[in-house]
Amino acid sequence: MVEFAIWDILRNLLLAARWTLLLSLIALLGGGVLASMLLVLRLLRKKTFQILISVYVEIFQGTPLLMQLFLFYFGLALLGFDTSIWWSASAALILYTGAYLTDIWWGCVRSVPKGQWFAGQSLGFSFFQQLRFIVLPQAYRLSVAPTVGFLVQVIKATALTSVIGFIELTKAGTMISNVTFKPFLVFSFIALIYFIICYPLSWVASKLEVRLAC
Amino acid sequence: MNVEFDFISVLEQWPILLTGVSWTLGLTAISTFLGVLSGLSLAWVRVKKFSALNTFIKVYVELIRNTPFIVQLFFIFFGLPQLGLRLSPEVSSLLAMTINLSAYSSEIIRAGIDSTPIGQIQAGKSLGLSEFSVFFNIILPPALFRVWPALVAQIIIVMLGSAVCGQISTEELSYAANLIQSRNFRGFESYIIAAVLYLVLAVVMRLLLNQVGKNLMFRGLLKNG
User: Which of A30, A112, A113, B105 has its CA 20 to 30 A from that of A20?
Assistant: First the structure.
């Protein structure tokens, strides 16, 4: 058995935390792009889009992320698609993030008073001009706090990719604890690292909320 | 590429699926009861502002809310035995779910309590009601009513999150899906069926709990406006 110093354990965990952060970033950017497109489609107020988008949101919010990951990693492979772990984990997380962000941002856009749209119309703005110059700047201000809050949920969600074998913080920790026989120490460190990443974000989100409420 | 779906061979294993659904529901039911109850107590202590306890609860809530559920579960199942506390997979799952829900629900319930108009509390006090009675008869019912939808959403998140408990061999629904696909190699189909079952559970639970909230718990409140 190899002896591991505490520093070795911590160093390896911190190295693995890079992948947690990178995966969160991919999920947030990909999910953000997806959610923006769906948001515009939803605003066009076509029945078919509305129904399709609510079905998508309901499916990805109503099933466990773990099942989504299994389907993307094991499921698609059985159907003959060549899925690497990076692709499956990213795809599942992007769709999961997109489903929540669409909902959050939709709420923000809807809380901009209807009169703002009409004002734009009366100035002869096109739909996209109303959206770009009048509604989105106002909705953006409302959306910052809940989006930062949701980012915490995304970072925590990446921990589930460890189950399909993606080596990020949680998976690295499980492996290290199997080698060192110090599960208590290792899992305390993992929790601490997640906390150090997530807590500042939660704090910022709650401060932003307070500022908006005033 | 020619792929044939064979959902029947998965559905033939329905006893395994049924066991899975019952474990998922059972774990959710018990952890909802215990979690909301302890969340309520935590919220009560925080509103009362006992300073030392308050800080302790704040740290507990933030620790739970800013770490992933799977890490909490692994900490309980793999980490605690090192301290001499060895729990079965089922008890570990239940404990992790309860702890998780208690932290979230305490914040949700506290938000409801904080939005109580001060006049209502003063009215209760001026009627000579005890502090206990003011809290449980005046503050709490409308507070719970206000945050009920958020609480229901959180309970459903915990139910969906319990899919991870299969990883420490609790025989819930995702464990059942894994078991079936290891028997007949129908991975795609068994995960789809499990996902559909989760979706049905989530939708039914949401409708049911919202109805329970409206019709049973808060009937008086709705009648009085």
Answer: B105
